[in-house]
């Protein structure tokens, strides 16, 4: 159980269009929802959420298909796991908890949900913090240009049931191998054992493996198509935005700096901060990540 990772936080099960979403909430002040990445759960925020709850009403939720939230079957067009659809879950959760407008901080896949929500419903999102991502269509542009490895993006997006079957033979080594390879120390040592247990529970189950693949299938089809439509229409993020990026994962030799990739696309005025760690900034470098986020969220 991860209850002891979030002392004083309440637990919620909230009905949505495709099932139930699990969330925790704690603290008082302006509302802030935290969205986790792949292949983790809301537990990834355990080193930041209690500190942020000193100044905010913090909500940590499991995205659909992850953690303790429902894992619906995907559909042929991958709409079920589009970031637009997952953003609707965020709105439902926050409204159920009494918040129409709120700040959002997201890591990895959660950050993709966050910026899609901010573009789709600019009246909802007051501030947007993105942890260690580039726009989805930009990632695919680099993959197709050969300047970034396709890696798990292409593999997980392959048609069902190829990746589900291959991963399902021995799920934990696959997912733990990804976490190791993306971390700054190339190990699992940075993880709290209780958080790691939550990730293992979430990854080691066929319906969730399918959900992860559907997340990436949507990420290869609907999500970049929606990005491109917004780019063609000249839409940009209406709220203040902030990027935290890792020096040992997102930064690639010879590539355009992460901040510039956002400024040229959806966030002309975005500011940000680099953290000297691997991809899992909130767990590998919580003090530095909190120090970067706090002035922005309280501004």
UniProtKB/TrEMBL annotation:
Residue intervals of the AB hydrolase-1 domain: 30-245
Stretches of the chain forming a coiled coil according to its record: none
The keyword Hydrolase belongs to this UniProt entry's keyword annotation: yes
Pfam families in UniProt: Abhydrolase_1 (PF00561)
Sorted UniProt keywords: Hydrolase
Superkingdom as given in the UniProt entry: Bacteria
GO molecular function: hydrolase activity
InterPro entries in the record: AB_hydrolase_1 (IPR000073), AB_hydrolase_fold (IPR029058)
Gene3D superfamilies associated with the record: alpha/beta hydrolase
PANTHER family linked: EPOXIDE HYDROLASE
Listed name of the protein: Alpha/beta hydrolase
Species, as recorded: Enterovirga aerilata
């Amino acid at each position: 159980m991860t209850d002891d990772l979030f002392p004083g936080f309440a637990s919620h099960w909230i009905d949505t269009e495709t099932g139930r979403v699990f969330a925790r909430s704690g603290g008082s002040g302006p509302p802030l929802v935290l969205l986790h990445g792949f292949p983790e759960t809301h537990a990834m925020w355990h080193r930041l959420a209690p500190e942020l709850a000193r100044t905010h009403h913090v909500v940590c939720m499991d995205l659909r298909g992850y953690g303790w939230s429902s894992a619906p079957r995907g559909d042929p067009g991958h709409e079920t796991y589009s970031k637009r659809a997952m953003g609707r879950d965020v709105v439902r959760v926050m409204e159920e908890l009494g918040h129409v407008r709120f700040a959002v901080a997201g890591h990895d896949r959660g950050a993709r949900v966050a910026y899609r929500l901010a573009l789709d419903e600019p009246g909802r999102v007051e501030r947007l913090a993105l942890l260690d991502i580039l726009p989805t269509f930009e990632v695919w542009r680099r993959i197709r240009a050969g300047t970034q490895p396709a890696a798990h993006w292409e593999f997980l997006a392959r048609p069902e049931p190829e990746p589900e079957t291959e991963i399902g033979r021995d799920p934990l080594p696959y997912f733990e191998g990804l976490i190791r390879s993306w971390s700054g120390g190339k190990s699992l040592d940075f993880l709290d054992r209780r958080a790691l247990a939550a990730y293992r529970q979430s990854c080691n189950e066929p319906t969730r493996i399918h959900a992860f693949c559907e997340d990436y299938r949507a990420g290869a089809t609907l999500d970049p198509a929606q990005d491109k439509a917004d780019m063609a229409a000249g839409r940009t993020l209406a709220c203040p935005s902030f990027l935290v990026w890792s020096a040992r994962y997102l930064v690639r030799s010879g590539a355009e700096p992460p901040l510039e990739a956002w400024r040229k696309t959806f966030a002309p005025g975005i500011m940000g901060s680099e953290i000297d760690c691997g991809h899992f900034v909130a767990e590998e470098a919580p003090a530095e990540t909190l120090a970067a986020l706090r002035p922005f969220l309280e501004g």
